[in-house]
């Protein structure tokens, strides 16, 4: 919550005529009004995973766009959080620390389910060890994917896929395939066409190198005192939307929020409305974020920025519950 004491508004010298009970009520109402006026984006990536921004440039971009708070949620990584918090203090943007976990869905959707873990105890040695083990598996997995695609005639190398921090992700594979095909100025339709090659390659990866299960990851987030939120359940291609039975199962297993607003979420879409109704019915936190990577302009920071600003307050309260 915004602490209005910083501005001296609740100072007894300024409000000497208000009885304490009314003053407390005034402080609460004032804080709520200020909070509702705040703007934020709870889903963003840096170059420590598959984003283009350094933590500093990401925070600066948030500042330029007039955001008051910023979620930094790299894929299966915490490497950029310390830097982000440093620059958040410098530029006066509140950093909401998070991790976006890639997981295998319990009901076999066509792609992995992503869970956002907010406010986890991310400096815990046990969590760091878990993530480090995941990194090693991740490298082996993408080495196998590259090998498979080379056999299919794509002249890829692992080094071609690495960004400046050494991260390789599925998006980098699809992008390089498009570049090799002479489609650097690709359309969304082009992207989805080449995603199929990545999915084909991923299907050949041994189970021991695959992502952890969604339900195990949900337990992990809670174990480390985090707030588990289902990321971007809506996708433009209907086949990639998270099936509603999966959403129901995750709700029953204890997710605490659903990412309702996003850069590509049409608020009037029947699926989005259904997800929103489920969140309300189960009193879940409704979050929003652009999923900024800056690989293209489809997920630009500020698009789909969180209309439910009061929900961040709920996120914070849940940490102490």
Question: How would you briefly describe this protein structure?
Answer:
43% of the residues lie in helices and 12% in strands.
Produce the secondary structure layout:
Elements: H1 20-37, E1 40-41, H2 55-64, E2 69-75, H3 81-91, E3 94-103, E4 113-118, H4 125-151, H5 158-161, H6 170-180, H7 188-202, H8 214-223, E5 227-230, H9 244-253, E6 257-262, H10 270-281, E7 285-289, H11 310-319
Parallel strand pairs: 1-2, 2-3, 5-6, 6-7
Antiparallel strand pairs: 3-4, 4-5
Structural notes for this entry:
The chain is an alpha/beta fold and 321 residues long. It has 2 domains: 31 residues, no CATH class; 282 residues, Alpha-Beta Barrel (TIM Barrel), CATH 3.20.20. Helices cover 43% and strands 12% of the residues. The protein contains 11 helices and 7 strands. It has a 7-stranded mixed beta sheet with strand order 1-2-3-4-5-6-7. Helix 6 crosses helix 7. The longest helix has 27 residues. The two termini are 15 Å apart.
**Largest beta sheet: strand ordering:** 1-2-3-4-5-6-7
Q: Determine the CATH superfamily of the largest domain.
A: Metal-dependent hydrolases
**Helix amount:** 40-55%
CATH architecture of the largest domain: Alpha-Beta Barrel
CATH domain fold name of the largest domain: TIM Barrel
Please give the radius of gyration in angstroms.
Answer: 21 Å
- Tally of domains: 2
Q: Could you list the spans in which at least 5 consecutive residues all have pLDDT below 50?
A: 1-15
Shape: globular
The SSE order reads HEHEHEEHHHHHEHEHEH
User: Which structural class matches the secondary elements?
Assistant: alpha/beta
Highest-level CATH class of the largest domain:
Alpha Beta
Largest sheet: 7 strands, mixed
The CA-CA distance between the termini, in Å, is 15 Å
Q: What's the overall average pLDDT, rounded?
A: 83
How much strand? 5-15%
Tally of helical runs: 11
Strands, count: 7
